UniProtKB/TrEMBL annotation:
It holds the Pfam family Trans_reg_C. Residues 145-221 form the OmpR/PhoB-type domain. Coiled coil: none annotated. It comes from the Bacteria. The lineage of its organism: Bacteria, Pseudomonadati, Pseudomonadota, Alphaproteobacteria, Hyphomicrobiales. InterPro entries: CheY-like_superfamily (IPR011006), OmpR/PhoB-type_DNA-bd (IPR001867), Sig_transdc_resp-reg_C-effctor (IPR016032), WalR-like (IPR039420), WH-like_DNA-bd_sf (IPR036388). It comes from Nitratireductor thuwali. This is Flagellar transcriptional regulator FtcR.
Amino acid sequence: MIVVVDERELVTEGYNSLFGREGIATASFGPGEFGEWVETVAEDDLKAVSAFLLGQCETGDLPARRIRGRSNAPVIALAEQNSLEDTLRLFESGVDDVVRKPVHVREILARITAIGRRAQAMEPNYTEVGAMRIFADGRDPEIDGQPLPLPRRERRILEYLASNASRRVTKSQIFNAIYGIFDEEVEENVVESHISKLRKKLRTKLGFDPIDSKRYLGYRLVV
């Protein structure tokens, strides 16, 4: 999920729509409400955020400073004009990148991926579970070196399980990461349907079910 912060509702609605077309969940805030949210949101909800996108925020306290106190997710600022002074100010506030508008959402997603790749330069961008290799960059997983095509939601659930392989994650955590914490149009139980389909495909290819589930405790990959 990407969090968009901008004082103009028309702008946040536009990004919500554009990212939605790419299959990316978003949550949008004005600068004032965002400050309160980022300081009080539950830790598990915050872990569902893959990046922060900061637009026009005419406030003295830049949102990036509050983000850094709670999250290491990439922070990208959108610049309205080419100003060296403004760019330096944004970097000093803690953002990871400054992008001048207009910019396509695919470029923003590519920059988010690049920031994450640099942060994890010494770590592999995949998790191996037996014969399965699960990538963290949107590629389909591989089994015995062969790609296993998956629908977007199932692939992202598998990626999320892989990124949290050392612990169990609840249905709510998976839903928040895949659909966003404010999506009221989709029922949380849809996660069970996605996981059921995913398990069937993995079991057919692997010969075993790599997703362990415990009632009330959640899901985890058997690694």
